Amino acid sequence: MTTRILCFGELLLRLASPGRELLLQSPQLQVHVGGAEANVAIALAGFGHKTGVIGTVADNALGRNAAAELRRHGVDTARLRFAPGRMGLYFLETGALQRPSEVLYDRADSAFARAAADTYDWPALLAGAQFLHLSGVTPALGRAGADAAIAAARAARAAGLHVVFDGNFRLKLWQAWDGDPAQILSELFAVADTVFADHRDIGVVLQRDFSGAPAAEIEPVAAAAAFRAFPQLRRIAATRRVQHSVDCHDLAAHVFTRDGAWQLPAQRLDGIVDRIGGGDAFAAGVLHGLLTGRDEDYSLRFGLAAACLKHSVPGDFLCLATGRVEALLGEAGFDVRR
Amino acid sequence: MTTRILCFGELLLRLASPGRELLLQSPQLQVHVGGAEANVAIALAGFGHKTGVIGTVADNALGRNAAAELRRHGVDTARLRFAPGRMGLYFLETGALQRPSEVLYDRADSAFARAAADTYDWPALLAGAQFLHLSGVTPALGRAGADAAIAAARAARAAGLHVVFDGNFRLKLWQAWDGDPAQILSELFAVADTVFADHRDIGVVLQRDFSGAPAAEIEPVAAAAAFRAFPQLRRIAATRRVQHSVDCHDLAAHVFTRDGAWQLPAQRLDGIVDRIGGGDAFAAGVLHGLLTGRDEDYSLRFGLAAACLKHSVPGDFLCLATGRVEALLGEAGFDVRR
Amino acid sequence: MTTRILCFGELLLRLASPGRELLLQSPQLQVHVGGAEANVAIALAGFGHKTGVIGTVADNALGRNAAAELRRHGVDTARLRFAPGRMGLYFLETGALQRPSEVLYDRADSAFARAAADTYDWPALLAGAQFLHLSGVTPALGRAGADAAIAAARAARAAGLHVVFDGNFRLKLWQAWDGDPAQILSELFAVADTVFADHRDIGVVLQRDFSGAPAAEIEPVAAAAAFRAFPQLRRIAATRRVQHSVDCHDLAAHVFTRDGAWQLPAQRLDGIVDRIGGGDAFAAGVLHGLLTGRDEDYSLRFGLAAACLKHSVPGDFLCLATGRVEALLGEAGFDVRR
Amino acid sequence: MTTRILCFGELLLRLASPGRELLLQSPQLQVHVGGAEANVAIALAGFGHKTGVIGTVADNALGRNAAAELRRHGVDTARLRFAPGRMGLYFLETGALQRPSEVLYDRADSAFARAAADTYDWPALLAGAQFLHLSGVTPALGRAGADAAIAAARAARAAGLHVVFDGNFRLKLWQAWDGDPAQILSELFAVADTVFADHRDIGVVLQRDFSGAPAAEIEPVAAAAAFRAFPQLRRIAATRRVQHSVDCHDLAAHVFTRDGAWQLPAQRLDGIVDRIGGGDAFAAGVLHGLLTGRDEDYSLRFGLAAACLKHSVPGDFLCLATGRVEALLGEAGFDVRR
Amino acid sequence: MTTRILCFGELLLRLASPGRELLLQSPQLQVHVGGAEANVAIALAGFGHKTGVIGTVADNALGRNAAAELRRHGVDTARLRFAPGRMGLYFLETGALQRPSEVLYDRADSAFARAAADTYDWPALLAGAQFLHLSGVTPALGRAGADAAIAAARAARAAGLHVVFDGNFRLKLWQAWDGDPAQILSELFAVADTVFADHRDIGVVLQRDFSGAPAAEIEPVAAAAAFRAFPQLRRIAATRRVQHSVDCHDLAAHVFTRDGAWQLPAQRLDGIVDRIGGGDAFAAGVLHGLLTGRDEDYSLRFGLAAACLKHSVPGDFLCLATGRVEALLGEAGFDVRR
Amino acid sequence: MTTRILCFGELLLRLASPGRELLLQSPQLQVHVGGAEANVAIALAGFGHKTGVIGTVADNALGRNAAAELRRHGVDTARLRFAPGRMGLYFLETGALQRPSEVLYDRADSAFARAAADTYDWPALLAGAQFLHLSGVTPALGRAGADAAIAAARAARAAGLHVVFDGNFRLKLWQAWDGDPAQILSELFAVADTVFADHRDIGVVLQRDFSGAPAAEIEPVAAAAAFRAFPQLRRIAATRRVQHSVDCHDLAAHVFTRDGAWQLPAQRLDGIVDRIGGGDAFAAGVLHGLLTGRDEDYSLRFGLAAACLKHSVPGDFLCLATGRVEALLGEAGFDVRR
Prior knowledge:
Helix content of chain A is 36%, strand content 24%. The first copy, chain A, has one domain (4-329): Ribokinase (UDP-N-acetylmuramoyl-L-alanine:D-glutamate ligase, 3-Layer(aba) Sandwich). The two termini of chain A are 35 Å apart. Chain A is built from 13 helices and 13 strands. Chain A is α/β, with parallel strands linked by helices. Chain A has helices at 36-46, 61-72, 111-114, 122-126, 137-140, 143-158, 171-175, 181-189, 199-206, 218-229, 278-291, 296-310, 322-329, and strands at residues 5-8, 12-16, 28-34, 51-58, 80-83, 89-93, 102-106, 131-135, 162-166, 194-196, 235-245, 248-257, 261-270. Chain A has a nine-stranded mixed beta sheet with strand order 5-4-1-8-9-10-11-12-13. In chain A, strands 3-2-6-7 form a four-stranded mixed beta sheet. Chain A binds chain B through residues 267-273, 305, 308-309, 311-315, 319-320, 324, 327-328, 332-338, and chain B through 19-22, 25, 90, 95-103, 105, 170, 172, 241, 243-248, 270-271, 275-276. Strand 3 of chain C pairs antiparallel with strand 3 of chain E, so a sheet runs across the interface.
């Protein structure tokens, strides 16, 4: 069976202090593999889809192991290129109560960030696939990343793939070089079928501030503006997060198409295990709905359930079979399954 | 001093993933010894009672260590028989938020499950004891277990012991063979003085569904039916659990005798450490009241407090001195004891 | 730059069971360095102040490592004396839900507790400093500790330092010898500029019970009584803690001067990581305000924020830069910082 | 690129006590995936070959993870069948000095052991491959395993594959049922091109005892007898191990063909990390030589080097790139590579 | 079955740094229960004998757990008295190469050391037993310990028990008070049937230096002198240890009776896991021979094998079934048992 | 007391796989702080000397913690400059048997490597010190490092300090840019009083190959050549290492002055715990001799003993009091110190 969904982005290693300790409070680090796009690939593989990743990885023990971890979870790594250079890292200190988690990026100058756009042969890489997923992290890494992301998205559109773009706006990364996010992200929105973006992401792209609208209209207004600006765009989805403390959030979600709007009430997440990758799990969940031909409502509910479940699992990604997500959509209850 | 309470059942090894990780997410398993009846024995030993276990254990390093763990907690293991065969295992993945814990049983064909009823010399095993505790897990394991449980309970009754039976209905186990739970459990209810059972357990035994009654009457109605069906039965107790999430439950409890009913309002358990064994700790707590000649109200309150405390301790059993349980019955507060 | 704040007290080693396990449930102990006064020194060093500790430490590997841990966090250890004897220890079992944490002290007869008052050359030790911090733990350790604490406080006052005294009343310690807390603590209150004490601490000193006053007046009444009794006293501050469960507290705080009163509403702390040292972090936070010339309101808010944050970090002390505390005073939110 | 080497056998989970502890001395188990044939597949994948495994695996979290671990190391798992049943386990206590390591098998009645020979469609499974590797463990598991192994080997031979058989004689497994090892293993030797077997394995098959021959002739005599008995057999290889203590072995190796004999002097292995899987690494190393067209001498030297290296790595298998094995064939030395 | 062997001495907790780390190099301690006499009791229980311990233990969580660990290994703890006071501790830093292991004692003033001789009712405690084992550690702890040890040994002799005394001379402990080892130990040698002592121990007792004799005669000469001085003494046994490095020792052993001498050549122990408790395992092994009616040669060989095996197991004691020790007496070899 | 010895170089974090695992074989990394020059500073601080480090460290949590670790061990960190940029890392996989340890450097572009020579104010930094220690690692990092090292050494010489230079030649680092090691290292040799260098280091500097000389003359000949080429040079010292396996080395050492030569026979190190930093411990040991006014023989013996001991301790540096090193110079033996 050929790979149906391809994800283009950087693999990262997360090096985290144990439990709720401060970074290096004790001399130990827990390692997880992550990366926004890889997270989506792994979650979709867990849902039973044929997925693969495209990217450039350091040709050393770290890079080889990061790729191996993806393979372990059933993701095809044959499209990864191993190149000299370093592996992108991030150090994580997990917060608690009113102490937010801290991410210390050490990803500059990685093999991925240095990979020129023309090192990728897009027609060959995309052959046979139906979906291409990419995110706003890649263009934020620098000129090479921005060029590669745009080339990838355009090639995918040209080849008839469904292009999925997750905004994932990270101000810190954009500030490290002189890229123009509005211009670059616009080029990506312009070829996307589905975008994961809330009013802030759309605001960056359209250089507008939607936050002045009445609360209930902020997202619809922003979505409408995006649909006007990008005629090929078909679907806009996002989660909304209210944080009562570091460990206790409410998570809601919505999806807009040109024809309709679906909104789910917030789920209370009290006692969060690991918040990172929640958005990626949401994206994977929504895409699972699309890939299995479900309607927008089901896709959204499956996406929000996947996002919620991600908060209960350590590491960057969710890797659960669909049955365990579907259990949340019903009345399964929370007792031990035995 | 002779042993006053004997518990008949299977020792199990729990192999659990660390923290809130998925099973085998990292290559490590935490080991705990458990088993519904052993949990009761250990908790009662912690409360200062002379307890012992009866059963069959694999004659290998795993079985020897499981028995040793019971000895460590003060339980007499002289009545255990070591026999060829395997040790019953279960793998546990502890859940969080909306992801329920998952138990993967690997207990089929264990030395205990294969032990024929006639391998136990009941009069000799029960000599000198005052209470026999058994649970619905043993008869659910297969024909040999069912026969052994019934023989044990009848021998105990014949010898004048107080027979305690904890329903512990596990559909999955019954489905693995062609046993008839209603018929088998009835034989156990028929010789029990005290049963730990809620309306669902009673419903299985009496082949009735009590859930249609008004909420406040479900348990009284079921208890009344049980008292009618089993004339020797003196006491029915159970906890009631409402699960707001995997980590946050409300736990209430009640006891019915032929003369009265006692109900305790729910305790909120928010931030549960380990939910397994909560029912066994409740049973042990109630039995502690009986063994020390306290009234039903005290026994029930002590039982619920023990059950609540179990949720704060990792592993299958509670092993705390009575003082630490009694502290919950008063106004001791929650600050560090120093 | 010379050291501005000196803290006099005992260094302790905390030996704690992992996670929420009972003590020695598994054969492993986590080690943290602590001690009420050292905790204040470390927190202030983290806030950028030049701090040092005064005391007597066991001249062995344990004592050397405890001092090293302070140095690691930027505290000057040159005023520590290494003497034959043992290191004070305490064993900690961290509670959960309704099971309180248990501290098992093993600090009797430590090198610190045995150090006679005249082993300290106060004028030399205090030279150049502006603040001396001590707590009610030291005088509670025995005659030598009481004498040393009083000598230290008087010497500091004589030398023009700002004397800070944290009540930290521990009944168990006082009961182990025949000291008179009211008399001894009075001598310390009598030379203090700032005391950290609530109505119970003041009640011990003045041998009065303030708890009968209307709830809102208990603390003001007690403070007023203290100001009357101790004419040099300038400031009284304390936190107030309401414990809904072992893991969920509300923490409020107030400060009284002769001219005014400031009270902060309670912060909800749900999912506490480590409650020990919360009071020390509060003291350090308030002192940070004083040391940087801020007003009472800011100092109190900074102190309460520091105390709250301490509950999110494992170990006895808080060691965070001021920026991370100040973030709580604003609208920074709780999301991952990346 | 199609898979060149297929390995048919059972996946096992190893659950080992940490370090040199006795089993369950502390409540923790380290998990590794293993199985003689899987070990060969992984080692060959590490050497850069396209490998795959054939077999039946428990359709639960344990089986899914075992397969995932193989995928992680680059082995194709598409030919695994997931079936109801349990996962084969073994518990390991690693020895030291004069205390031998102990293996406690808990693999009876596994999904693999219960898989009937006709559940495998050999022509389809073997399509496109050039080598089939199997071992004496599979036929030892019971009638189903014996039938499946013979069917696999015959189908492979019929399809023109090079059949590799590793004797791996385990008396304990054969004794658990009434199989006739001489007869069954003969059928496998009869269709093998290459066998890994020493004089004891050959002795079992031919029902002869070669140990009476002069030391230097034992293996040549046994090999000659095997070549006479099995006319299609082309190559016999084995290691010879002398154990000075549990941690210090000498490891030599030889290969015989119909035309020649190659013998390597013993390597001293002092300070062994993990001895399990040494023979599988040897087999993989020799096969690497064959697969890359090297002569017998190189293949043997590469095989012995791989076997030695296995002893330096925890777990059942070796997963190193060829360069790290080849370094042992030269004069690379043992200093830190930096 | 009544307890045959009683061991009188102090239970200790060992708190050790992990692996080969320096003490507190990382913030973690591994806990083991030990004590020379308890080690003997546990080893004998492992060999299948009914053993019990006599002593005084701190009445807190540490003491309760230490007793529980003995129970876990099958030792009867009913004769332990729980008393207020602290638990004896020792901190261990395990050495390597040329860095010797370091023990930091923190056992002064323990509940055991403070227990007066008259807190023990010897006739009642010894009733029914056949052997009493004690060691030179107890009298070295102070006047109370010395008195108690002498009283115990005399009571045992009066009651017809076989008295076993293990010299275990520890200069550091004797130096901490003004006891006279020669005089006190003489009183113990004077009532012992069997002593574990080499020429240095005997030299302390007899106030002679035997080291000037020719190497081969040192131990026989010392033993002869002891037999002359103590007419009731029947057996003297000891190991001799040559240390090539911290990790590599040669261990020999001998036993003298009034009628004969048995000497075993040294065993090479290269790659020692844990050297502590080697002498206690030797004593237990020799006693096992006596208890099972074997001759001196077998007892000595079993004792040396047990001592060697102890070096392969972490912790203070050996707990292995006799079969695993006997395997060393034969030709069992060192390969994995599977 | 002012700092006597200053060490200029880069602080690194070592991230190592646990035990003997391959890198990322399990998802955990052990963290140690290191760096050739920091290792020397820490070892000297352990020996009781006032030491400090000079350098540039990343102004983030990693850099702050690395500095804190030095402070913990008593090294003055006041001369460290915190600058934007990343922290130099290296990943370590510890080998065994014939599998060499592997270092994966990830130190390019670190805050230290980017620090221009003129960011250091040498006269101010060196004020009051007597020794400056630097190594060949710093000039190998690139032009900035080379310039800074030369400036430092020249400033130290001009200010009358004793300049110590440790060759530490790392080909891989020099190859990463176009530096000329012979020319740059010559400039450092030209101002050094003491160099740690063997014939290979000297060969690089003098562009000669000394390895053709008779074995016993290689080092004397190389030293003589160095003394001729660098007239101010007073002392050349080095260790010689023969590696029998990854875990078993022989370590010898020598020192040459213009007046004499001292050579020590090799010490056997069998069962090495951690080989990294052995050369730095040697340098610190020799410097300890110089700083305490001992002769060359003592200094060399102390140096070799320190180097040997380093192999017994995990991590990059040795931190032991002189007494534990001196024990090796005598006849102290290897038994447990208790």
